[in-house]
C-alpha cells in the first residue's frame, strides 16, 4: 500500500524514469494477492475478530487494552483488501498468444475466487480456537460446525463451477488443470459434509475419497471439454448469455489461430477473424 503513493509521487515529479518501481510494485502486489493474501488477512483479522486475555479466556476485541490494536488492524486491513481486489481486477496478462499461463481476457472469475478466500479466512478466524487443548475444553458448537461445512461446500462449488463454465484463461490446458484442482477441493468439502451428516463414517469416506476424488475431477473436466465443443458448434444467435457469447468468440478466434501472436497471416485468415468478431459483437449487443 505504501508502494502505490511512492510510485505516484515519482511519476508526478520525474515522469516515467524509474520503470523498476512499477515492476517491483507489481511483483510485490502479485505475491500479496496470491501466496501471502490468506496469511496477511488471517494475522490482521484475528486481532479484532477473536481475542483472548492472559488466562486464555475469550474477551472483547473492542474494549480495554485490545481496542487500539483492533482499530489499527481494521484501518490497515480494509485498504489492503480493497487494493487486493483492484490488483486482482487489473494486474494480469491480457496477451492471448503470450507465454504466461495465467493470461486471460478478464478477471471476473478471479474476483469470485478472491471473495471466497476472503470470506473463508474471516470465517476460520472467527471460529478458531487458540490451541488444541482449548479445542478439547471448548469444542465447536453444532451451529459453528454446520456454518463452516456449508460455507465450504457452497464456496467450493461456486468457485469450481465458475472456472468450469466460463473457462477464464486463454490456455485451455491450464484451465483444465485449475478446474481439476478446484474439483478435488469441492469433492473434499462434499466428503466433509458426508462426515457431518454421518459422524461415524470417517473410515469409509477416507477410503472412498482416494477412489472417487479423481473420478469426480475427471467428470468435471470432461463436462468442461463438452461445453467447449458445444460452444464451438452452437449458433451464436441461440446464446442469450453475454459471457457465453464472449467465450464463443474467444474460442472461435483460438480455433482459427487468430489469438496467437501476429506472424504472416493471410488475407483470408484475417477476414475470417474479423467476421467472427463482427458476428459475435453484433449478437451480443442485440
Detailed description of the structure:
- This protein is mainly α and 286 residues long.
- The protein has a domain of 36 residues.
- The chain is 72% helix and 1% strand.
- It is built from eleven helices and two strands.
- The longest helix is centred in the last third of the chain and has 32 residues.
- It is flat and about 65 Å long.
- About 3% of the residues have low confidence.
Could you give a quick summary of the protein structure above?
The protein has 286 residues and is mostly helical. The protein contains eleven helices and two strands. Keywords: Membrane, Transmembrane, Transmembrane helix.
Low-confidence stretches: 262-270
- Radius of gyration from the alpha-carbon trace, in angstroms: 24 Å
Order of helices and strands: HHHEEHHHHHHHH
Strand arrangement across the biggest beta sheet: 1-2
The helix fraction, in percent, is over 70%
Transmembrane segments: 27-49, 69-91, 147-167, 174-195, 207-226
Keywords: Membrane, Transmembrane, Transmembrane helix
